[in-house]
Fold this protein.
Amino acid sequence: MNTTNVRRLLFGEPFPTSREAHERLDKIRGLAIFASDPISSNAYATEAIMTVLVVLGAGALKITVPVALAVAALILLVVFSYIQTIFHYPHGGGSYSVAMDNLGRWPALVAGAALLTDYILTVSVSVSAGVRAVTSAFPELTEYKVLMALAAILLITWINMRGIRESGSVFAIPTYAFVAGVFIVIIIGLVRYTGLFGLAPLEPLPYDPAPIPSISSLLMLWILLRAFAGGCTALTGIEAISNGVGAFKRPESRNAAATMVAMGVIAMTLFLGISFLATYIGLVPNEKDSILSQLTRYVTGEGPIYFWVQAFTALILFLAANTGFQDFPRLSSFLARDGFLPRWLQNRGDRLVFSYGILMLASLASLMVLIFRADEIAMLPLYALGVMLAFTLSQSGMVVLMGKVKKLAPDETLDTGITTLHYERHVNLKRAINVVGAIVTGIVFLILVATKFVEGAWVVALIIPLMVFMFDRINKHYKDVANALTTRGLSDRDLRTVSEVVIVPIGDVHKGTLHALQYAKRLSNDVRAVCVVTSPDMHELIMRRWNRFPELTSGVKLNLIDYDFRDILEPLVDYIGDVHDNECPGQLITVVIPEFIAETWPAQWLHNQTADILRNRLRHLPDVVLIDVPFHIAHAVKSQ
Amino acid sequence: MNTTNVRRLLFGEPFPTSREAHERLDKIRGLAIFASDPISSNAYATEAIMTVLVVLGAGALKITVPVALAVAALILLVVFSYIQTIFHYPHGGGSYSVAMDNLGRWPALVAGAALLTDYILTVSVSVSAGVRAVTSAFPELTEYKVLMALAAILLITWINMRGIRESGSVFAIPTYAFVAGVFIVIIIGLVRYTGLFGLAPLEPLPYDPAPIPSISSLLMLWILLRAFAGGCTALTGIEAISNGVGAFKRPESRNAAATMVAMGVIAMTLFLGISFLATYIGLVPNEKDSILSQLTRYVTGEGPIYFWVQAFTALILFLAANTGFQDFPRLSSFLARDGFLPRWLQNRGDRLVFSYGILMLASLASLMVLIFRADEIAMLPLYALGVMLAFTLSQSGMVVLMGKVKKLAPDETLDTGITTLHYERHVNLKRAINVVGAIVTGIVFLILVATKFVEGAWVVALIIPLMVFMFDRINKHYKDVANALTTRGLSDRDLRTVSEVVIVPIGDVHKGTLHALQYAKRLSNDVRAVCVVTSPDMHELIMRRWNRFPELTSGVKLNLIDYDFRDILEPLVDYIGDVHDNECPGQLITVVIPEFIAETWPAQWLHNQTADILRNRLRHLPDVVLIDVPFHIAHAVKSQ
């Protein structure tokens, strides 16, 4: 079974390139793929707010609802703003593309670095949170949590390597099951709250009515900002759809926008519903029992609905990781296309997915899981910063874009290079929304940096500039290569001249080396066999064997180099360098390497790897053309 | 800093081959290098006997002395027998060589496999025992014992890579310090036993004089045999010197024999002294406090001598591992020389040591440490079997050899191929010793197999035949190669004919590929450029660029292959195979590969590895000559 068969067994038959459009997503699968991240954050977003407020006492928890409303307003603002982006960039308009098109190279690279960092964290945080949901239920598994997280990443990687539509189908069920479960809890809760339909009315829990301690308004503001920052985890993953417009069926923009709206409405509704009911009942955050679990149990009892919600919470958290697997490979392929990341990141694999991007993400996320021992709480301060920075840059870009649209007369169009702008109505209103969006998300970004800096955000603040620097270096390399390869004004004389010298390093005189000499003699009249000998006995032996084949060796000069060390490649490389520098400087010289080829790797392993090592050393000399004349052992044995 | 510099910094400047004789060992260093294994076994050999006997009650421990005498007699027998081997095989006569020379191929391979297995265990057992000595003193280090054992292997590997004389110097001190320490303990013990010189007389400990339980004589025999088998661990490593005769200064045989006698006398004296005193005092084996430690404390008190002996016990156990590093690489180089292991195992490295053998041993011993979690007790049942099997084969070989010597007249000589035999006196006596040796070690081998089989010896019983099978397969491969390469009766017509077809796979039309085409045009008038195109746009683009260089591309046929999958190498390899099979079957065809070379590996990593992958695929076709025409990016950029 060769590697091709193994690959096909694991990942399925290759798809033809022309099938690409058929692999696209409809809205149902698209929502499941792109929304599992923002929707799953309802498993912890309300709790993130309450955990901050509870330091002021249980009485302060009622502030949860206004903070949640502020977060919900932010979600709405971002969604609305992104819908404009989706329609203006039908080929995919993540923050990177928008910033590149409107703000220029550096802001675009910052947005790209911020998002790539965040996508890696999406995977490691979601998988770790999913593992925690499992180990909460089965504490005896706690010691295996790193292993479980890595296994989950491996499983998600495998599913994604099989291709986008299949992964959509797999992921649809848990996402919709989670949404349905939480909706039922909220509806029952609200019905019991109103006291209608004869259900038992929902009574608030008794609580200690201690007043909120009187603290300075500056400290109060700090706590409110931290609570708000906590709630902002609900926004991670929202921008995914704008990047992935191209993954939708036609008409891409319309399908993507509809999915975005559905996602925003669902995420916001769940978030507000949970926040309102939890505050009304008076639930208190508790490390061992999540707010969502407490709420479900209080509203529906510990019955089938409770277990449904708990099970699908764990599942959707694993699947939220999948959002990263959609976004990271796509964004890195954009950066690769523009020459800021290795070009091969834009190659699609056999199943039309960006295989290298998937594998790179899987490796980096696994590394994060290992470094943080699958502890998502420790990773959270690094998270959400990147997304908010990308929002800010994207919205600012849209402000500039709308400025261009504003100047268009009816029937006039403008090609920006990656999209085409038309005359639009209500431009001023739309632009105002983007201005507000840019300012608000910019402020939120600063809040996140300030409140999370010492807890770990500094790491991200360090990594993003480093990545931007790396992007720039890579770009410079590709520009150098393009300049080196350019054929502009090229003529025959610009190409290198080839010297007549052909050097054949040999280790012995046998059928394999004679074979190579025969090939070399076809190329030139100046063939030189070179052999490094390490003892007088060997010197004599080689000479004797050489003289036995006067016909085959005629016209070939034999150079024997006596050498008293064991690294025989050193004098060989020196000899080749000397010939080049002294006899034909600046010209190409040809080295013919006789090489054994055994058919199996265990057999190959039985031979000195001298030919391989020599080839690798000679590759660093600029003017050497290498010719491998193979001698296939199995073939030679069979033909006798 | 390139790899050569790193290597020199780590392992020192290379030695010239002619220095080999200067790197040889004198007797002082030779004893330290070869004897640390058998001498260090005094740290546990007596205890191994007592641990078995104590199941019959403390009273049975007095049987230790007769069992120890039997083991000592066996040591004497083996040493005496090996001295004959050393003089008859002055170029190194381990069991493998002796068996090969006298018994034939299969017994020799069995001996080789048995010894290689045992040498690996020497390293893993000794290092683990040394770590136990350290963790006994510092129990808080217990959780790092696997890591410590691996670090010790790494350190010993490094010292051995630097060369044989240096490692002799490093290892001399602890070996002699251990021997001196234990000798002092035994001398003080014996002086106090005799009551002379006014020292306090040595009183036996009071003990429970319960009689030895009456058990069946069969069971008693079994227990005695197990006790004897335990004591036989004292014999491991004795054969090392006979293998390493060639490592001694001239006269090799005489120096090696003298060292062997010194080693045997020291090992036997220490072993009998410890066994006698421990039995006289009435010490009882105790898991937490070794017999040697108890004895030293009882005889000399917990003073400086006690700590000296304890410290050097730990050190010599680490160093006993070094014996394996002398033996394994040397024996595997013999097997490689005879074509039973990969040939490169006989290559000496820069510092004249068998670098590959050292690295292979280090890897295998580390693997054992990992599998057994550095628990030497668990490894012991696998140990000592191999040595005893090798003894038996070696002695049997000597019996055959002495039979040949017996037939020689005075002044007559006989060349066996690896040694020269002369007329000798007392041949019958010498031969009788070998006969007794062969029978006794054969019986001991059977005892070891029987008493240790279920505890793990079955693993070795399985591995040795597997290794012999592997040796045989490797030998067959090398014979095939030799037949394939033979130049016997070779003439011009036997070499392959070379077809005119030259194929140049290209990915684009740029300076690099035009460069390669120009080289190809020098070789032949039938040059074909092949390009796999994955879209109609690309098809058109390549055609347009191609037509821009009529002068450079004249005479070259361009084949564009339209392909709807992403694995573009598949149609390329198919095309090359088709051309070969249909147009020039049985002839060599030439493929010219244009290849980017970036100067640094991060830069190389930015490019598709297409050229490398294509080369690896084409290597499996039997009739393809590969030409790499390099295009050095840095060079091209600079020269502009």
Observations:
- Chain B touches chain A through 78 residues (CB under 8 Å).
- The mean pLDDT of chain B is 84.
